[in-house]
């Protein structure tokens, strides 16, 4: 079951205001539904996408962040590799601490505010939007036809999605603490791509074409419609039961909320099941 994210944004209800604001790396900004539109300008139009600077990803935006960390005096023993791995996480955590951040705000996983401040120091802009985010009204609820409910089928889809999103293959085989997507998917749906939870706290809203309430958890990874829309992967279907779109939204959600799958108890076979 997926609910609205808490990491790296902590939600606080302001008494007498009647709305939620969120803290991003200790800075106030708009609610989660507005966060995807935050963008800062860089020198010469250079922009780094927050969605590209995730643990395990390999791309030029990671190189830009690594170069900025080195220029700011933080150590990368293996140099600028373009891969967001352990050395980059350690250096980024040091950068966060230099900003006065503590706890989960200084865990080495970039948030919008800390990355924007690094960009200002180094001359690049930051786009905090999820590139593929869609409106909740665009989510569709048609189920899959004749799809086997087994691990091999689920693994095949998960492998495709990891390639698509840039998530490391270890998210399937198991990271250092053995957490992996297949454990999460089995616990959430028993590898049933058409699974829907009709009874948990998310089962609210108007009844949709599949006979379930709007925000019920659905699909392999049991994403809600709101989570699916906010974390939708660009280029995938708007069908919440679609295996590729469903798993991709879950991966993006994990990156946004937890930073890495190793921190998701539901994905860890050595720990009791727990909603994520």
SSE layout and pairing:
Layout: E1 9-13, E2 20-24, E3 27-29, E4 47-49, H1 60-71, H2 86-98, H3 112-122, E5 125-127, H4 151-165, H5 170-173, H6 181-189, E6 196-197, E7 217-218, H7 225-230, H8 243-258
Helix pairs in contact: 1-3, 4-6, 4-8
Pfam families: PG_binding_1, SLT
Domain Peptidoglycan binding-like: 58-102
Domain Transglycosylase SLT: 180-262
Total domain units: 2
Q: Which word captures the global form?
A: globular
Mean pLDDT: 87
Helix and strand pattern? EEEEHHHEHHHEEHH
What's the tally of helices?
8
By secondary-structure content and strand pairing, the structural class works out as alpha+beta
Q: What is the beta-strand fraction?
A: 5-15%
Tell me roughly what share of residues is in helical segments: 25-40%
The span between the termini is: 6 Å
Low-confidence stretches: 4-24, 26-37
Under CATH at level 1, the class of the largest domain stands as Mainly Alpha
Number of strands: 7
Spatial order of the strands forming the largest sheet: 1-2-3
